[in-house]
Amino acid sequence: MSTLTLEQAADQLAELGHATRLGIYRELVKAGTTGMPVADIQNSLAVPGSTLSHHISRLVRVGLVRQVREGRVLRCFAQYDQLNTLLGFLRDECCVDQRC
């Protein structure tokens, strides 16, 4: 069973419901466990720096992304445990009302 509340799941889904944030998250998921520098995300999606920062901070706020400073580089990581928890929340009660 998922440990997310309905409100937490709604917050995460709302943040992923924006095209730019979904694009950022998909880039980070593709990058895997090594993460991706913010500059690379910016180059890949052609999003202005201030706009990108805003969108990343929203994903960080709901726990889907983590940022780590490595010297002058700010690297972002998809939080796969949170992604799996969110997916679990969506499928936890799949077909529970169906009579087999």
Break the fold down into its secondary structure elements and pairings.
Elements: H1 6-16, H2 19-31, E1 36-37, H3 38-45, H4 49-61, E2 65-70, E3 73-78, H5 80-91
Antiparallel strand pairs: 1-3, 2-3
Organism: Saccharospirillum mangrovi
Domain HTH arsR-type: 1-98
Protein name: ArsR/SmtB family transcription factor
Give structural notes.
The protein is elongated, with a radius of gyration of 15 Å. A 3-stranded antiparallel β-sheet has the order 1-3-2. It has helices spanning 6-16, 19-31, 38-45, 49-61, 80-91, and strands spanning 36-37, 65-70, 73-78. The chain has one domain: Orthogonal Bundle (Arc Repressor Mutant, subunit A). 57% of the residues lie in helices and 14% in strands. Helix 2 packs across helix 4 (49-61). It is an alpha+beta fold and 100 residues long. The protein has 5 helices and 3 strands; from the N terminus they run H-H-E-H-H-E-E-H. The model has no long low-confidence stretch (mean pLDDT 94). InterPro entries: ArsR-like_HTH (IPR011991), HTH_ArsR_DNA-bd_dom (IPR001845), Metal_resp_trans_reg (IPR051011), WH-like_DNA-bd_sf (IPR036388), WH_DNA-bd_sf (IPR036390). This is ArsR/SmtB family transcription factor.
* SSE order, one letter for each helix or strand: HHEHHEEH
Distance between the termini: 21 Å
- Uncertain runs: none
**Which homologous superfamily in CATH is the superfamily?**
Winged helix-like DNA-binding domain superfamily/Winged helix DNA-binding domain
- Under the CATH scheme, the architecture is Orthogonal Bundle
Q: Estimate what percentage of residues fall within beta strands.
A: 5-15%
Query: How many domains, in number, for the residues?
Result: 1
Shape: elongated
The total beta strand count reads 3
- What is the helical fraction, as a range of percent? 55-70%
Helix/strand-derived category reads alpha+beta
In DSSP terms (H or I, runs of 4 or more residues), the helix count works out at 5
Radius of gyration: 15 Å
CATH class: Mainly Alpha
CATH topology (level 3) name: Arc Repressor Mutant, subunit A
- Describe the strand arrangement of the main beta sheet, using strand numbers: 1-3-2
Query: Which whole number gives the mean pLDDT?
Result: 94
Q: What's the main sheet like?
A: 3 strands, antiparallel
